[in-house]
Specification:
The strands form four sheets. The chain has a six-stranded mixed β-sheet with strand order 6-5-7-12-8-11, sandwiched between helices. It has a two-stranded antiparallel ribbon with strand order 1-2. The radius of gyration is 17 Å and the shape is globular. It has nine helices and twelve strands. It has one domain: Zn peptidases (Aminopeptidase), CATH 3.40.630. Strand 9 (198-200) and strand 10 form a beta hairpin. It is α/β, with parallel strands linked by helices and 263 residues long.
Amino acid sequence: MKKDEINKIWKIEEKRVYSNNLKEFYHLLKKQSKLKYFRIKILGKIDAESIFLLYPKKIIKNNKNILIAAGFHGDEPAGSWGILDFLEKSKRELFNEINISILPVVNPTGFKLGNERDIFGREPNTVTKNNPSREGKILLKYSDLLRKLSKNGFLTLHEDYQQEKFYIYSFENGKKPGKFSIQILNSTKGIYKKFDTGIIDGYKVRNGIIFNEYDDSFENYLFSSGVPRCICSETPRGDNINRRIKANGMIISKFIHLVLKEI
């Protein structure tokens, strides 16, 4: 299957908007930010488009702290829209139980174009200190803050155009995936079957999980910096956009539930 690199967009019927409509997405997101009492911070700009961080107006001292990210690749928009779906459906009381921070669109120029890479043709999810992307440099600039906000876990939402089943990259302390990773893998049950065993992008997948495979990604960077669990989810990008959005909302909800239950 050949990847369609240019203008990969979908019509989101429920909202009567196309998946790459960054202006409308940010409009709806800011509305939810007010309702859920988030502060919005501009971490930086890529070709005049802002990379936003949402974090609680009041960080409750004894609460767990998690960071959720999406939109590293502009042709994988269901994670960003899944965040919005999660915020729209969540009760305000949840945000008193756990400190949730969000990077809704890390690659805004790619998001607008419906392209995997940014407007400069770079892979945004590269944060190695030797040759980080522009987006990576912005994340590294705020690395101390982002580590604090993800103290108890980091979730990044991706999609895979080649697969029809769900799988995850998991970073945890241990020799094999724990209950946390296994339950995240089961979070889309009823929508997607899980990938079993094989090779994806050169990595070994065992029972739907690519475990502790170190690379140049932001999730690996945070894990190596002390964040105890980092999950990168991969929903099937070729599926219906509304199902993909729903699945990503389910992944977020399960991640929060597991952190709260200390699994």
